[in-house]
């Protein structure tokens, strides 16, 4: 990881799971870098996008090389299936993990392919330190509720109810993305006035 980030052991790490083309990480590393750093009390983060599809990772890392002069925070993309390999990746200094718009795998026979499972929640709890952040969102309400329930069922996580403000059927959702950086899917939802459940 030192070759990817230089000072990887010194800075906290934000991991974006299922980063796709990396729009969220790209925004955090460039135009949203200052706002993100301010929101984190001046602490600068390393940013890692993890995506299962190697071609998207190659494209994202090519973007990093082409935009090196614009980068305000160190960024890297890797191809991995986090459901199987998160703990074995030996990620340094993880402080935040984002799981945004995972594939809903709506057909019953594909449910086991969903990212947020009890096993994955346990792996996240093992990787994140006490006080670390987990941010999940989806534009599929049933999937967002399921992710919420899986995380809430794990005693290693504390859901900060004080930060939730929008009650929807006995569940409270965040009003806005706390990172103020957006995935490609966020942008599509915004354009179509489609709600996002965070």
Automatic annotation (TrEMBL):
Keyword tRNA processing among record annotations: yes
One Gene Ontology term of the molecular function aspect: tRNA (guanine(46)-N7)-methyltransferase activity
Family annotation (PANTHER family): 3-DEOXY-D-MANNO-OCTULOSONIC-ACID TRANSFERASE/TRNA GUANINE-N 7 - -METHYLTRANSFERASE (PTHR23417), TRNA (GUANINE-N(7)-)-METHYLTRANSFERASE (PTHR23417:SF21)
Keyword GTP-binding among UniProt keywords: no
Enzyme class: transferase
Catalytic activity, EC: 2.1.1.33
Xref: SUPFAM superfamilies: S-adenosyl-L-methionine-dependent methyltransferases
UniProtKB keywords: Methyltransferase, S-adenosyl-L-methionine, Transferase, tRNA processing
Species of provenance: Ostreococcus lucimarinus (strain CCE9901)
UniProt name for this protein: tRNA (guanine(46)-N(7))-methyltransferase
GO CC aspect terms: tRNA methyltransferase complex
Catalytic activity: guanosine(46) in tRNA + S-adenosyl-L-methionine = N(7)-methylguanosine(46) in tRNA + S-adenosyl-L-homocysteine
């Amino acid at each position: 990881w030192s070759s990817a980030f230089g000072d990887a052991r010194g800075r906290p790490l934000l991991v974006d799971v299922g980063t796709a083309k990396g729009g969220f990480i790209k925004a955090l590393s460039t135009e949203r870098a200052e706002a993100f750093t301010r929101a984190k009390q001046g602490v600068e983060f390393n940013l890692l996008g993890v995506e299962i599809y190697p071609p998207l990772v190659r494209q994202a890392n090519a973007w990093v090389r082409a935009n090196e002069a614009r980068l305000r925070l160190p960024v890297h993309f890797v191809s991995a299936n986090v459901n199987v390999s998160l703990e074995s990746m030996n990620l340094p200094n993880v402080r935040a993990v984002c799981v945004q718009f995972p594939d809903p795998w709506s057909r019953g026979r594909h449910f086991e392919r969903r990212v947020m499972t009890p096993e994955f929640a346990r792996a996240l709890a093992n990787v994140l330190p006490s006080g670390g952040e987990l941010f999940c969102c989806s534009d599929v309400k049933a999937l967002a509720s399921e992710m919420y329930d899986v995380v809430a069922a794990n005693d290693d996580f504390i859901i900060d109810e004080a930060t939730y403000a929008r009650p929807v059927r006995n569940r409270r959702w965040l009003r806005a993305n706390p990172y103020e950086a957006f995935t490609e899917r966020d942008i599509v939802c915004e354009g179509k006035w489609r709600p996002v459940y965070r």
